[in-house]
Design goal:
two-stranded antiparallel sheet; 14% strand; alpha+beta; single chain; two-stranded antiparallel ribbon; 4 strands; globular; 178 residues
């Protein structure tokens, strides 16, 4: 019983921390996604314009789509769209997804990615943040993110998130929210 109460409190604290992080970063907490009913009827065109467009292109196939247009604090703008056949995704070998997803599974690496996206791109700028640990630990995390393709060295201790990874990274973060 005590474990249940502690677990419930931990979940509530985690939810509050996520909300505070959203307020601190001036990012509004998005409302929960709306889902069309499963009757097979066309979804409301105003709300589900991307879904309806995907359905019209996919015809008889199952498909997934992610897309985004992002302007970061440094005024860099990224636009990205990717779709995939759902049956092919389900049939594919998922082992190749383990390394990139694992690289995102550490709070320090997520903090590093956030810092790079908001404009702190040098090892010195990133390392100046207290929560990132020692220089050796920072380099370990930078290597993990670079090996998984989430970061790229742009020379002389500078890092960037490759343009083709900005929107997918934000999609993964959005999808991970409860």
């Amino acid at each position: 019983m005590v474990e249940s109460i502690v677990g419930n409190l931990a979940a509530r604290v985690a939810a509050l921390e996520r909300r505070l992080d959203a307020v601190d970063s001036a990012t509004p907490v998005a409302p929960p996604p709306r889902v069309p009913d499963d009757s097979g009827a066309a979804a409301d065109p105003e709300t589900f314009w991307a879904l309806n467009g995907l359905r019209s292109r996919a015809e008889d196939h199952s498909a997934v789509l992610f897309t985004g247009a992002v302007t970061l604090p440094g005024a860099q703008t990224y636009q990205w769209q990717q779709s995939a056949d759902a049956d092919a995704l389900l049939a594919a070998d998922w082992d190749s997804a383990a390394e990139p997803l694992s690289a995102l599974g550490h709070p320090v690496r997520l903090a590093v990615l956030r810092q790079v996206l908001v404009g702190r791109r040098t090892t010195a700028e990133i390392g100046a943040l207290d929560q990132l640990g020692t220089t050796g630990q920072l380099y370990h995390h930078l290597r993990q993110l670079t090996a998984a393709g989430w970061l790229r060295s742009s020379g002389r201790g500078r890092y960037e998130v490759p343009a083709t990874r900005v929107v997918p990274l934000l999609v993964i973060l959005a999808a991970s929210r409860p």
